[in-house]
Amino acid sequence: MTEVISCFHLVRPHWHDHLEFIQLMEGEAQIHIDNRTFVVRAPAILFINSCKIHSMQSLNGKSSTIHGMIFDMSLLSGSFEHSELQHVFARFIQTAPILEPILPSHPLWNDLTTHFELAFKEYAAQEIGCELIIKSSLYRMMIPMLRGFQQELSLSKDLNKSFDQYKRLKPAIDFIESCYAQKIYTDTLGGLVNLSPFHFTRLFKKVTGLTPMNYINRYRVDMAKRLLIEKDLTITQIAERTGFCNVNYFDKVFKEMNGFTPLELRKQFTES
């Protein structure tokens, strides 16, 4: 957890696997999340999903203050592992749109600010048991967001059934995330869960909200972002290492998902 006070850069352009809450305490700021831009005045809360390129700067040369909370997804996914929330959380991470800034008029405002401020206070004090209170606050922030996501997508209220369907597909999802650099066929994925390609594709779309190919490409693009930022590889090499058949197709899919090309992303980080 951090506090930043600045007249210019509050958050320089960066990317990570983690989830993040940012609370704008004072001032006015411009926030970039992938291809979306928001201008917001304090007070406001922002949620940054995993693998989103984001930055934030003060406006008009005036000082702004933010509090930030970054946490590893495993902190939540481990607790949800044997819960019906596992399916909702996994789908939220993979398919949730970039969220608008949360303002005082939002129904979740009071819950989010109360537990964010409690977590921040506990982190600053570092008293015994603070980790448990911070973790509890994090649950109290995330679960209402997951419930709202479930309602917006009209996901089945029979979460036990949805969870069972997600568990059935888990071997195929794990295979995608470990073998994304290889050619992956629907026949192979269906075989892992004893379904025909047709029935596998239909169930996969129902559970994840994406076709198998869209899910694979989304995961490949997320891995490509990491390589573009962290490794000195050519665009062609990155396309090959992330399972794309050629660099033109990689460029096309990447831009469709992010609003900018791989080269534009690399230039942004080089310049910053």
Give your account of this protein's structure.
Helices cover 53% and strands 18% of the residues. The chain folds into two domains: 2-152, Jelly Rolls; 159-272, Homeodomain-like (Arc Repressor Mutant, subunit A). It has 272 residues and is α+β, with helices and mostly antiparallel strands. A hairpin with a 2-residue loop joins β4 and β5. Residues 170-268 form the HTH araC/xylS-type domain. This is Helix-turn-helix domain-containing protein. It holds the Pfam family HTH_18.
- Average residue-wise pLDDT: 89
Report on the biggest sheet: 4 strands, antiparallel
Q: Please, how many helices?
A: 11
Task: Give the low-confidence spans.
Answer: none
Q: Order of SSEs, N→C?
A: EEEEEEEEHHHHHHHHHHH
Report the count of strand segments: 8
Assembly classification: single chain
Question: At the fourth CATH level, what is the homologous superfamily of the largest domain?
Answer: Jelly Rolls
**What is the overall shape?**
globular
CATH topology of the largest domain: Jelly Rolls
What share of residues is helical? 40-55%
N- to C-terminal separation?
23 Å
Number of domains: 2
Rg calc = 20 Å
Strand order of the largest sheet: 1-8-3-6
CATH class of the largest domain: Mainly Beta
CATH architecture of the largest domain: Sandwich
**Structural category:** alpha+beta
User: What is the beta-strand fraction?
Assistant: 15-25%
